[in-house]
Amino acid sequence: MNPIFSALQTSVFEVMSQLARETGAVNLGQGFPDDPGPEDVRRKAAEAVIDGWNQYPPMMGLPELRQAVAVHYKHWQGLDLDPDSEIMVTSGATEAIAGALMALVTPGDEVVLFEPMYDAYVPLVRRAGGIPKFVTLTPPHFGLTEEALAKAFSPKTRVVLFNNPLNPTATIFSEADLDLLAAFCNRYDAIAVCDEVWEHVVFDGHRHVPVLGRPDMRERTVKISSAGKIFSLTGWKVGLVMAAPAIMRVLAKAHQYITFTTPPNLQAAVAYGLGKEDGYFEGMRADFQRSRDRFATGLRDLGFQVLPSAGTYFLNLDIAPLGERDDVDFCRRLVTENGVAAIPVSAFYAEGAVKNVVRFCFAKRDATLDAALERLAERSPRG
Predict the structure, then answer these.
(1) Cα distance between residue 276 and residue 2, in whole Å
(2) For this protein, what reaction is catalysed (predicted)?
(3) Is the peptide bond before 3 cis (omega within 30 degrees of 0)?
């Protein structure tokens, strides 16, 4: 057995979800919405199964989808992309990340990672032969510093794996942060692999700024997006990859030998969805923001210390004021004693773990959030 995977423990997401199933708890752990997703996009996928092509689509993705990606990101982020040479479709963003690491990392290369981070990053980096170098971000702001980057980068740095907006912290990096990261990438001749799957799930008037569009980063950035996150259809697993032609040619070779293609009916539906009017995307953000505000207000009314959430589906609590020192133990007791499942944020750290933050998913119906708040009242600092 490959020790990189055989030595891994069961994911904390599965542990907490299993406990939620066993206890009948309100599951605010795993990050998926209650809503089934936009009906018109789902209907397009169903129609494409019946009336469309169901054999192998082109390896790089349906031409209509790649064209839709180019138009979409020109409109929303000001990016000029060639749909033929700079855009690829993968079976989910995680496949895109795995393929990028396989394509860009050779054994012994160093890969800079920002923790807390998506739990797939470290095993994928190691499987590609890379050596992880961690930048540890801390609450409440989780921002970058020049000192922290200077410690992580070296002449051996080949790739920077960067998630913005950041799951699990629900923060958005500033343009100053992006330019600082760009400066280090250019100084050390590193490629930024940018996991930007939450780019449309941003609040309070924020507009996503892609690293690909920063000065001097056009030729050294891989941008990865997710139709599943854009349309709240997390089970679809349709990834969108953008990079300059010299990089894309190598990414495509890795993709060719991982999944090769992605279901054509889903691609057709995503192409349709990316062309929806601005009102859909603005309305989607407004709906999630309303749920965030409803849940955050309820938590604050109970006396909990809520950390800021600028994007994603998540809110975080600082449990230190409760006298709690172990987020894993707190989450186990929360699900078994109070009937609410959450995720300990220490699970997103490889080293230097922060142990006083827990994450809740607020992308749920009002009744679900209200039920969770009613149960959380039993742990309220205000009694």
Answers:
(1) 44
(2) L-aspartate + 2-oxoglutarate = oxaloacetate + L-glutamate
(3) no
